[in-house]
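Next up, sample data:
>
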Amino acid sequence: VQLQASGGGLVQAGASLKLSCAASSRMFSNNGMGWFRRAPGKEREFVSGISWNGGYTNYADSVRGRFTISRNNAQNTVYLQMDSLKPEDTAVYYCAAARGAAVYSNRREYNYWGQGTLVTVSS
């Protein structure tokens, strides 16, 4: 079982990026999914989460209104649309699959992690 994150890159402040997380197994269609990030010198932090069917979502205060999480269970993929990017959004972004079906912000609720994709936002 693998999670493959992609879509990172180098952009200027104010630009947009869309991250994708492809799961190797349809088992994730029954699980909540999330995005976390780790900036240089900082702890990994919650960015956004989505329930198994996409009916519920949650966002960190720092990204609410700028980022949008979504999923396509038919394609075993979760997305993170990032708009109005800021230099402080620079980090390695990780997708993760939760043990349960709901929305979770605590990383201990997640037991599968992707390898991360780097997002760099220049000022």
Notes: The mean pLDDT is 96. The first strand starts at residue 3 and ends at 6. The radius of gyration is 13 Å.
